[in-house]
Amino acid sequence: MTQRLLRSGGLVIILFLTTLACTLASGGPVTAPTEVPQHILNTPTLLPTRAPQPTSSPTVVQTAPPTSSPTVISTAPPTSIPTSSAGLTTSGLIYAAADALWRIGTDGKPTKLIDQVYGVAISPDGNRLLTVQNDPVPQVLWLIDLKTGQRRNLTENFGRVVCCPVWWPSRPDWVLFQSWAPGDEAPDAGYLTSARLGGQEQRVLDSENRSNGLPAPAPDGRTIAYDRHGEAWLYEWDGNPQQFDSEVYGLKNIQRIASPAWSSDGKQLAWYVGGDFGQGWQVGLAVFDLEVKTARLLHVYTNAGRGGWFDAPVWSPDGQWLAFGAEDQDQAQAGLWVTSIDGQKEHLIMERGYTSPVWSPDGRWLAAGRSLIEVGTWRAQPIALPQNAEVVVWISSTSQ
Fold this sequence. Notes:
- The protein has helices spanning 5-8, 10-13; strands at residues 61-62, 93-97, 100-104, 110-115, 120-122, 128-133, 140-145, 151-153, 161-167, 174-180, 191-196, 202-204, 216-217, 223-228, 231-236, 242-243, 254-262, 268-276, 281-289, 294-301, 314-315, 321-326, 335-340, 346-351, 358-359, 365-368, 371-374, 380-382, 390-394.
- By secondary structure, the chain is mostly beta strands.
- A five-stranded mixed β-sheet has the order 1-20-19-18-17, with no helix packed on it. Strands 4-3-2-29 form a four-stranded antiparallel β-sheet, with no helix packed on it.
- The two termini are 27 Å apart.
C-alpha cells in the first residue's frame, strides 16, 4: 500500500510518536500500538445522526457479487522492460527505487530524476514534484523543478506541520496538502490546506474539521471532495463547504466515508465507505453519478482490522474501471482488484502484497508492483524494475 508511502509522506509520520493504531476500519476497539505504522493513522468517530431523507425517492443501483469467482492472475519474476508489445511502451513510467526517482524514457531505459525524495507528488507533466522534507527546518513543503533542479519552500514561515501534497491540474497555480498546528498532530490526515505555487500564500481551508483520508480536487477547478471526521463534504473554492448527502442518491447506512476520487470528466465521484449494508460492518466502494443522482455500491466485503482509513480507488482514464485494494478477511480475496463501474465485471489481479496502481495514459495498461496488466484480458507481464521498486505515476510520453 496508494496514490502508498510515496503519497502519504513517510517523513511526516515520524512525528506521531504515540498513535492510536487500531482496527478502525473494522469498527473494533482502539488499542495503543507498540510502534508507529508507516501509513497515516486515522481515528474516525461514529457519524452523528444522518440528514433527513429527501422528499423524492431516488433509487440506489446495487449490484450483486459476480456469479463466478474472479480469476487470480499470477506473475513470474520480470526479466526485461517491455518496450514494444502489441503497441505497449512503458515510456513515461516513473518509479521509486534505491532512494531515488526514475523515469523510463522513449528508449525503454530508466533515467534518475532525483535522489532521496520521499512523500512525493509528481506534476501531471512529470516536470515538477512536491515533497515534504525536514531539511533545513522541520516539516516544510518543497516545490522542485526536475529539469533545472530549482527548489522553493512553499510553506516558509507558515508555522504548521504539513504532509501529503496533491496536485490540482485544473487549478495549476494552487496545490493541496494537509496540515496541523504544532502540538495538535493526531493520528489522522489533518486539516485541508492549500498553497499558491507562485508566492508565499497558504490557506487552511477547513480549520475546524480533521480528515480521515486525503482530498480529491475536481476537474472543474472549483470543488474539492474531502471528509470531515468520516463524513463526506464538498469544498467550493469561492464559497462554503457543503455536505455531500449519500441518501439523496439513495444510498443509506453509510457510517464512515472518506478517500474520494473523481472520474476524469467530473461526472462521477467514488468514495471508500463503511457501514452495515445487510451483513454487519462491511466496507466497499460507493460510486455516485452526479448527473442522474444514482449510486452504486460495489465490491462489499468484510475487511481485516487495520490502522487508519483506506486509500482512494484509482479511475481508469476512460472512466470505466476502478482499481483498488481490498483488505479482505478472506485472504483468498485480499489484494488489488479492478471493478467495472456497472459492477458486472471484477478481477483480482494481484494477491495480498500489492502496491499503488497507476494507469497508462491511454488506459490500456495498469501498472502495479513490478507487473503490467493488460486491460480487457487482465493478463500480466513483468517489468524489470528493482526488487523493491514502487510505481509512482505514468505520464504521457509527449510530456517528456
